[in-house]
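[step 3/7] fold_predict: job queued, chain A
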Amino acid sequence: MTQPSKAQKAHLERHCIHRLDGVVGQLYAGESYVAALQKLRGEQAQRMARKVGAFFWQDAPKVTVWMCRDCAVELGLEK
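[step 4/7] structure written:
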């Protein structure tokens, strides 16, 4: 089995704006991220969506989203 190329990996993984800050975080399925976004209302959903690299929602099953704990809590993925 071959490893995905750098371009393929970049396409399949997105992260919140805090990843480069060296904070602790974890990976979430793209579908979980999209479902959590859909539970938010207007402005709050837009603010959260801007914190993560963009992808087409139809690609969610192929995407993994890394989020810091604070963003995950704000989105409702963590308690």
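[step 5/7] annotate
Helices lie at 6-12, 30-39, 42-49, 69-75.
The longest strand covers residues 25-29.
exit 0
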